[in-house]
Amino acid sequence: VNVMAVSICTREAYQSMKERNIDDGHIININSLGGFFLLPASKVGLKHCSVVVLMGGITNPIRMCSAFFFFFQCISPGLVETGFAFKLHDNDPERAAATYESIRCLKAEDMANAVIYVLSAPPHVQIGDIQMRPTEQIS
């Protein structure tokens, strides 16, 4: 599901931009740092994937086909304070709350800053992958 979902979303984003005659843009995949590690069977290993599509003028992009230019980036955060733990542990809200209280987690604004960083790179710089986690997060 994780591979197919990202592939399908990326394809649809590209097709949508192409249909609307947008000839340059960014496709940013925001997933999870958890997808880079093999966890013991006793722990839950998840890789949440979504695609964010942002469009705008680019002066030095990657050539995807003869008439369209796009940058592809991946932002992989560690523990971000969201409502996800409460969905994962829906029968145990105390455990969910403890997930976010155990360390100083990344915040939504940290993720927004990563996207801004990608978009604000100078024309001669392409950002490929960003892996980020709270300084207190060990794995």
UniProtKB/TrEMBL annotation:
Gene3D superfamilies tied to this protein: NAD(P)-binding Rossmann-like Domain
Name of the coding gene: Dhrs11
Name by which UniProt lists this protein: DHR11 reductase
PANTHER family recorded: DEHYDROGENASE/REDUCTASE SDR FAMILY MEMBER 11 (PTHR43115), DEHYDROGENASE_REDUCTASE SDR FAMILY MEMBER 11 (PTHR43115:SF4)
ATP-binding recorded as keyword: no
Keywords: Oxidoreductase
Presence of keyword Disulfide bond: no
Organism encoding this protein: Rhadina sibilatrix
Lineage: Eukaryota, Metazoa, Chordata, Craniata, Vertebrata
SUPFAM superfamilies according to UniProt: NAD(P)-binding Rossmann-fold domains (SSF51735)
Family membership noted in the UniProt record: Belongs to the short-chain dehydrogenases/reductases (SDR) family.
GO molecular function: oxidoreductase activity
Annotated InterPro entries: NAD(P)-bd_dom_sf
